TrEMBL record:
GO molecular function terms noted in the UniProt entry: rRNA (pseudouridine-N3-)-methyltransferase activity
Subunit-structure text: Homodimer.
Keyword Phosphoprotein listed: no
This protein's name: Ribosomal RNA large subunit methyltransferase H
Similarity field: Belongs to the RNA methyltransferase RlmH family.
EC class: transferase
InterPro entries per record: Alpha/beta_knot_MTases (IPR029028), RlmH-like (IPR003742), tRNA_m1G_MTases_N (IPR029026)
Principal localisation: cytoplasm
Biological role stated in the UniProt entry: Specifically methylates the pseudouridine at position 1915 (m3Psi1915) in 23S rRNA.
Length: 155
């Protein structure tokens, strides 16, 4: 199974970039992870809606071959780490080859991305930057893989 997590812009905070790289390495022990970096839209004289729409085009282009897409949004369902592990395990057994996770930019996801998603998940009721969300998602996916494998990381 392969996970595709397109990133809107480079991770600017070095401590987050290091953590993202570390969790990507750890995750690649269990499954393939790709993190293509897309062009982040600039704010100059552009509305948030126009930025979200432009970013949506890029995100949706990345997901054309995905078997299943998950959007991260505060209004999505909240799951525990164990439930996420169960979902990952189920998707693997269903033979889903490519799963795409959508993380919005600084202004969130466009409605077209939310409509394309097969599932909408919330990582928290709290608000995180999109760069922090990358790291949190990767850590939780790694945690889910260790739960499935029966490793001690989760305990």
């Amino acid at each position: 199974m392969k996970l595709l997590i397109p990133l809107l812009g480079k991770t600017k905070e070095s401590f987050l970039d290091s953590a993202i790289r570390e969790y990507t390495i750890r995750l690649n022990r269990f499954l393939t992870v790709e993190l293509p970096v897309l062009r982040e839209q600039r704010r100059r004289k552009t509305t948030d809606e126009a930025i979200r729409a432009a970013e949506a085009v890029q995100l949706l282009e990345q997901a054309t071959t995905a078997n299943f897409c998950i959007a991260l949004d505060p209004k999505g369902i909240s799951v525990t780490s164990e439930e996420l592990a169960g979902m990952l395990n189920r998707w693997r057994h269903q033979g889903l080859g490519l799963i795409c996770f959508f993380i919005g930019g600084y202004s969130g996801l466009h409605s077209s991305v939310l409509h394309r998603a097969d599932q909408i998940l919330s990582l928290s009721h709290l608000t995180f930057t999109h760069e922090m969300t990358r790291m949190i998602l990767l850590e939780q996916l790694y945690r889910a893989c260790t739960i499935i494998a029966g490793h001690n990381y989760h305990k």
